[in-house]
């Protein structure tokens, strides 16, 4: 831990402290050269301590290189390959960047500064003289043509590093909590749809961190006031710091391993409490453990492959104009067909690509025994009509999709669906309608 190493170094005002930062580390790491070389050297150095799972170093390097070569992506129908740098979303990126930085910093560590600490691309260096720290900075900037370091010196005797501010004095050093000026101080809001235990743990950990990084009473009080302001800003107006000082219980319930998991989406604390009461009334609290799945959020909706790269490949498509490009290729959908002439509707479901099922519907307009063919004969005297298609829902599981179709038929009461099918659906789900609506 950084604070432990700082304590063991015991610096004071006679030393010089600065922080170094790499400019765009991930973008400038040469994944095909320096990073792979750094990994290879680390594997050779620690071969006896690393579990290779039966692979040789050469085989692992071959696998790693193939993984890095799979950085091909598509945008607006065109394919691109990343030639240099590491993709931020790549799982290997962080490990490769750390290995690469260990190779870059090796000459500086050999110089023997009083303290050298690094977290990813942020470095803190303490040396005896300014000349020594200048030498470290120059040496770091000569290790790679792509990697450039910037430096920051103490301002008003305080130097920020990660979430800590450091000040060297004659009697030693002082630390306190730090948040960047650009930080929006946004936490999970008190009124958000999250379990109460999650929000309590979040605020408790914030207070614990704010106080644990401080060396003196004055700094600890300043950090606690900062944490209190952040908590109030996010709606936690009734939170007292004394309640978040570690008086919570740590439970290690190993008996839950033998319980049957009951997986539910998290809706609200009231619903969760009601479910637990039901389990207690049924004497199942010792046999069933509730696992709550968090609801979808904006991040999960936005950070998805192909979200911005959907293309419509269907000629004269009648699906995508009513939704998004690429909807016509969606599989496992519950859909609505609307007659543009009279407004009558048809609700259906399909596990195949929607464009395939739509083509069958359009061909069926010429057949009297299909929903659209019957509609053409009865409502339009055999004249052709145009339709529009809208996707109601997507569901890959067949039974769940058919249930959604039944619910939409009950809700819309579409005139193009056969009356017999509607009656069967109402008979099957009628007993559950009052529970759902």
Automatic annotation (TrEMBL):
Matching CDD domains: GIY-YIG_PLEs
Residues in Reverse transcriptase domain copies: 1-175
Residue ranges crossing the lipid bilayer per the database entry: none
PANTHER family listed in its UniProt record: REVERSE TRANSCRIPTASE (PTHR21301), REVERSE TRANSCRIPTASE DOMAIN-CONTAINING PROTEIN (PTHR21301:SF10)
Full protein name: Reverse transcriptase domain-containing protein
Species of the source: Angiostrongylus costaricensis (Nematode worm)
